Amino acid sequence: MADPTDEVRLVPCEPGALTPDELRTLFLFEKLTDEQLTWISQHGCTMSMPAGGVVIREGDPAEQFFVLLSGTIALTRRIGQDDVETTRTEQRGVYMGATQSYLRDDGVERKYMASMRALDDSEFFVLTADDFSHIMREWFPMALHLLEGLTLGMRSTQAAVSERQRLTALGALSAGLMHELNNPAAAAGRATSALRQRVAGMRHKLAMLAAGKVDPERLVALVELQEDVIERAAKAKVLTAMEMSDREDELGDWMDERNVTGGWDLAPVFAQGGIDIECLTLIEERVGGRELLDQAIHWIGYALETEQLMTDIEDATSRVSSLVSAAKQYSQMDRAAHQWIDVHTGLDSTLVMLTHKIGDGVKVVKDYDRSLPQVPAHPAELNQVWTNLIDNAVQAMSGAGTLTVKTYREDDHVVVAIGDTGPGVPDELKKRVFEPFFTTKPVGEGTGLGLDISYRIVVNGHGGDIRLESKPGDTRFLVRLPLTEPSSA
Fold first, then answer.
1. Residue 221: which region, alpha, beta or left (left: phi > 0; alpha: psi -120 to 50)?
2. What CATH number is given to the structural domain containing 470?
3. Which residue numbers delimit the Cyclic nucleotide-binding domain (predicted)?
């Protein structure tokens, strides 16, 4: 691990230590002419570093180009408070340092992209960044143009594909959201239409009751009974499918015995409202016989169905409101770009937004530690990470399996683990999943930027870490987010 306080203590450079013939043994220089090798020999030098020493430090000006002659080195990247090893090698001839000094000056200072430490006594051949740039520009002009074009083209392509991917993801999310909104909206529309018919029926039955010259006291008692029945319905115990069927049969038989018209149509309404034979008998007593029982049963039935329809409308509109709230939370409208957040809020809103894509074949398991503290973050960017990881997990399972979203604390980090029960990622591909444009999906189904973008958001934008653990039936992406603001560079 390379500590920022470590000093770079290379043994002073020794010019001319390598002859042209010795340089030719390095794969980087093996095709050069004698004249070119002589020039490099005269301008280069050798340096050594004892075991444990820091050769270059991430973030320092990239002033030298190193070629390993002997020993073992490790490259590390600083992530939050930790150094993560990215490469370890003892291959003679590998190079690092000012590898992009030949690029056209764009006004940006070139810096080392990683730290390098000698794991045992190591020796290097060294060129200055200016000399390495001179070699590339003067000796390989065509290759230089190709490399510059490749570098700039990669940046442009990545930006364009990234933008297209975001638009595609937005379109998919919008389509899913519209689908989810359509269901409760359609249910509310159907319930409203039915409610209009039931209210009209109630008015008609009320007129029939009034025309029947019902005693005023009996009518008042019937209205009070209606309120009792509705209150009973609100407190009704939820019945199983078998119990509901038995209750409907009992109520239908009771109404049929008393010649209630359409009794078998009313029975399901009364059963769903929690009405039993005892309650129907009470209604019969309050009406005062069977003369007006038919109208009274229908009137109360309309009242029950009206209550049930209003409950359906309330549920549907609540569902719409929750979806709109989730969409607003997901997009982080009217919120600061950077804030202290509860990671569960973003995870929940992302799951709601992806409900249509997850489908019925995937079981979602939430294993949250609700006691976790808030973390400093860009919530909209983290929602993009959750979207990419959940989307990948669902696709890996081909629409059938278990999606697990787990949160827990690990030292001074909050960890979000998103797992699936898919076939897993082969060992030879694990180290490549975060590479730009690398994808295991069929042509046209993936850009290969989702995990690369997620990596940059978590690592570069939040000072955290993201890693993959996978075996058949158990694949997990672990996102570690620090509990404190990352220190300024």
1. alpha
2. 3.30.565.10
3. 28-136
Q: Give the pTM.
A: 0.45
> What are the tokens at 346?
């973003």
Closest CA to 91 of 118, 70, 121: 70
Within 8 A by CB and 6+ apart from 306, the residues are: 195, 198, 199, 202
In the structure encoding, which two tokens stand for residue 298, read together?
């229908």
Tell me the sheet residues that pair with 365. Answer: 404
Residue 181 and residue 254 share a domain: yes
100 in a domain, yes or no? Answer: yes
Residue 126 within any structural domain of the chain: yes
Q: Which two tokens stand for residue 330?
A: 């997901």
Same domain for 451 and 347, yes or no, is yes
Nearest to 183 by CA among 307, 325, 323: 323
CA distances from 74 to 42, 87, 117, 430 (A): 28, 6, 5, 20
CA 456 from chain centre, in angstroms, equals 15
Contact 299, 219 (CB under 8 A): no
User: What CATH number is given to the structural domain containing 90?
Assistant: 2.60.120.10
Position 444 confidence tier, pLDDT thresholds 50, 70, 90: very low
CB atoms within 10 A of CB 279: 19
Q: Which helix (H) or strand (E) holds 217?
A: helix 216-234
Residues 43-84: tens digit of each pLDDT: 888 888 888 888 888 888 888 899 999 998 888 877 655 677
| Nearest residue to 44 via CA among 68, 13, 11, 9 | 13
Report the C-alpha gap between 51 and 65 in whole angstroms. 20
Domain count, the chain: 3
279 in Cβ contact with 229 (< 8 Å): yes
Q: Are 247 and 276 in contact (CB under 8 A)?
A: yes
Answer whether residue 369 is part of any domain. Answer: yes
